[in-house]
Design goal:
The complex is a heterodimer of chains A (231) and B (507). Chain A has 231 residues and is of the alpha/beta class. In chain A, helix 3 runs parallel beside helix 4. Chain B has 507 residues and is an alpha+beta fold. Helices cover 55% and strands 19% of the residues of chain B. In chain B, helix 9 crosses helix 10. Chain B is elongated and about 150 Å long. The N and C termini of chain B lie far apart (90 Å). In chain B, 32% of the residues are buried. Classes of the chains: A alpha/beta (231), B alpha+beta (507). Chains A and B meet through helix 1 of A and helix 7 and helix 8 of B.
Chain lengths: 231, 507
């Protein structure tokens, strides 16, 4: 690693800033702190960070609006800090471009792990659009539309393949139900989540060793799904 | 009777006067002129008094006419059959006229009476409108009826399951058997007929209890009987009694409606309380918990220097302080709701209250400059210092929350008109005019204020605490920016006479 990764922490609560900023610095990150949405946007414009950690409840601009404005010009990962019971806000922020979330109250390791995942993704730039992708022992061959576990081919229906391919193109990102429905079935299907539930169940039976405790296609309750690349 | 005898005497006197005038003074002897004059007197007598007066007057008139004016004058002999006709005409006029007038008078009396009843009903309905949903609303209603209708006994009876709930009023107490009430209610359930002559609906019943006549009237809401009104004493016209029953039924319904509305309002408030508490736990609990969790695990780590360790410990302390304050608020609110806050009066110096409040919210004020102005340095006041300081603490916390850190917060104390006045002036953004009326409502947060963390409990608790010691609180915007909150608590005051006392009071 040449330069330390830059993290922008956006939270209006002084105590959160005072607790999180030293923690992140202690792990070798360079940390900028903003207490308002406007301040955050200014820092993004002047010194684009590698990862943004964003609280949804800001005094001036809603967190989801901050997501939208950041996405107009930049593509760095955004991790949301949000409270349980505010799933709607979370989904809105994810739909507007956020990548992941951590629910308050969270432990420090939880946040640090997410930051590590996203930094790795940024640094390795492995967003493959074609060719093949390997996740653990699962190999997805985009060109030949095939999926292998080890050496064995798993036969998927076209929709199942589309779902898996879409999730694999956004590894580790929480994809909202809405976003998946739109990608796999088209914009008219966004209000019919039952399609998705059925398809996910079918796909899990084929790719997961234990469909009841999925290892690849992980549920994010009330929000969406995530394709986990590491255990 | 006496009025009639006066009228009769007057009529006879007029007859005598006319006779004297015509016979002795004017010497009028044209029988027609005299007859017409007497006829006029009879007509007036008949129109103004009862039939008997009119008949006696006409007989007197006929006798005078015959004796003094009809030939042969000076005798009561009737020579000419023409005179019979005159006599019959007099009698006929008096009969017809007095009959007409008595009918008209009876009508007028009836109208007066009805107007009287209507006035009573009107007064009663006004009383009913002033009734609240108090527990004794029904006995209050019975008292209103007894007073407005001058009744000796009134009972508003409602059946609750097998029991009868009876609210009584009036100077008498009559044990009305519930079996009779049940009968009235049962018959009212069966028949709903309107009796046009008495202007009543079916179901009225008169019973005799202890030699007293008691009138029982079914109370109906629409067509549904809901109870019985019992009345004794002054006879009230059945139509009015029926209308009274209607007003009573409406009053009962209104009371029930008010009770239900109050219950619904209470349920709504407690629902609101619950959701507001949940929302507040969502943010005001999660944020401190997150900060404490992260800071505590930082404290465990080995990478911390001394300064950093102090910083992390401070985060924990600050957030624990915040949680403590939150729980205090929730507890205070619960105590106020339960009416469990009482006052304990003490002689103190106003500055002690300010000091106590400041100390209580020291953490919140850490980034602000607090200025105090004492207008009255030598006056002691008697009040509950704890309640007042707690209320003031909420105002200070509020000011610290909304005002910028560099601008001063000014607390002014003065004693004025047997009240301690404490003003808290900040240089923040002020209060949006739309928020002013609802500022002290529980969980109310201004549109602007929602971006700043807070629970909407502080000001409502301050108001609640002050209300316990009969104090008031209000807010206004200052002309040169910022908001000013004012507390006024009624106090006893006394002058500090020696420096020593002053030092003690401040200790």
């Amino acid at each position: 690693m040449t330069a330390p990764a830059r993290i922008l922490l956006v939270d209006d609560e002084l105590s959160i800033q005072r607790a999180l900023a030293p923690l992140l610095r202690s792990r070798g990150y360079q940390v900028d702190v903003a207490g308002t949405g406007k301040g955050a946007l200014k820092i993004v414009a002047e010194h684009p960070p590698d990862v943004i950690v964003l609280d949804l409840g800001l005094p001036d601009i809603e967190g989801s609006e901050v997501c939208r404005r950041v996405r107009e010009s930049a593509s760095m990962p955004i991790i949301i800090l949000s409270a349980r019971g505010r799933e709607a806000d979370k989904v809105a922020a994810l739909d507007l471009g956020a990548d992941d979330y951590v629910t308050k109250p969270f432990g420090p390791e939880e946040l640090l792990a997410r930051i590590r995942v996203w930094l790795r993704r940024v640094l390795s730039e492995d967003r493959v659009e074609s060719g093949r992708v390997t996740i653990s022992d699962l190999t997805i061959d985009y060109d030949r539309r095939r999926v292998l576990r080890g050496e064995d081919e798993i036969r998927l229906t076209p929709k199942e393949f589309e779902l898996l391919a879409f999730m694999a193109r956004n590894p580790d990102r929480v994809m909202t139900h809405r976003a998946i429905l739109k990608a796999v079935w088209g914009p008219n299907a966004v209000d019919q989540p039952e399609h998705l539930w059925v398809l996910v169940a079918q796909l899990r039976k084929k790719i997961e060793r234990d469909p009841a405790a999925p290892r690849y296609l992980v549920s994010e309750p009330w929000v969406g799904y995530r394709l986990a690349t590491s255990d | 009777m006496t009025r009639d005898s006066i009228r009769l005497a007057a009529a006879l006197a007029v007859i005598a006067a006319i006779t004297l005038l015509y016979a002795a003074v004017l010497h009028v002897n044209n029988a027609t002129t005299v007859a017409m004059t007497f006829m006029l007197v009879v007509l007036v007598a008949a129109a103004t008094s009862r039939l008997l007066v009119a008949v006696v007057t006409s007989i007197a008139a006929v006798l005078c006419f015959n004796f003094f004016f009809l030939p042969p004058v000076g005798t009561l002999t009737i020579a000419d059959p023409q005179n019979w006709a005159a006599l019959i005409a007099f009698l006929a006029v008096s009969l017809v006229a007095s009959n007409l007038s008595s009918v008209a008078r009876a009508r007028a009396d009836e109208a007066m009476e009805r107007r009287d009843e209507v006035a009573r009903l009107f007064d009663l309905s006004r009383d009913v409108l002033l009734m609240t949903d108090s527990r004794d609303a029904l006995s209050l209603l019975a008292r209103f009826i007894a007073r407005r209708f001058d009744l000796e006994y009134v009972a508003v009876c409602q059946r609750r399951g097998e029991r009868w709930e009876i609210a009584e009023a009036g100077s008498l107490s009559i044990p009305v058997p519930t079996s009779q009430l049940a009968l009235v209610l049962a018959s009212a359930e069966e028949v709903l007929e309107f009796d046009a002559r008495n202007r009543t609906y079916a179901g009225h019943r008169t019973i005799t209890v202890d030699d007293r006549e008691v009138r029982l009237v079914p109370l109906r809401l629409g067509t549904k009987p809901i109870g019985v009104l019992a009345a004794a004493g002054r006879p009230v016209d059945p139509g009015s009694l029926d209308a009274l029953g209607g007003v009573v039924a409406i009053a009962i319904e209104r009371t029930q409606f008010l009770e239900e509305r109050k219950a619904a309002e209470l349920a709504r408030q407690s629902e609101e309380l619950k959701s507001a508490l949940l929302a507040s736990l969502g943010h005001d609990l999660r944020t401190p918990l997150t900060a404490i969790r992260v800071a505590a695990s930082n404290l465990q780590a080995s990478w911390l220097g001394d300064a950093e360790r102090r910083e992390q410990a401070d985060v924990v302390l600050t957030e624990v302080e915040r949680l403590t304050r939150l729980f205090e608020n929730i507890l205070d609110m619960a105590r106020l709701d339960a009416g469990a806050v009482s006052t304990e009066l003490e002689w103190v110096h106003p500055s002690q209250i300010v000091d106590a409040a400041r100390e209580h919210v020291e953490h919140a004020l850490s980034r602000h400059r607090l200025e105090t102005v004492e207008a009255d340095e030598t006056t002691l006041v008697r009040l509950d210092p704890r309640l007042t300081a707690a209320a003031l603490a909420h105002l200070l916390e509020n000011a610290a929350r909304y005002a910028p850190p560099d601008a001063p917060i000014t607390v002014t104390t003065r004693v004025q008109d047997e009240a301690l006045i404490i003003e808290v002036r900040d240089h923040g953004p002020g209060i949006a005019p739309a928020d002013l009326p609802r500022l002290f409502e529980r969980f109310y947060r201004g549109a602007q204020a929602r971006t700043i963390s807070g629970t909407g409990m502080g000001l409502s608790i301050a108001r609640g605490l002050l209300a316990v010691e009969r104090g008031r609180i209000w807010a206004e915007n200052c002309a040169d920016g910022g908001a000013q909150f004012t507390i006024a608590v009624p106090v006893e005051r006394k002058h500090m006479d020696t420096v020593g006392v002053s030092a003690d009071a401040r200790a």
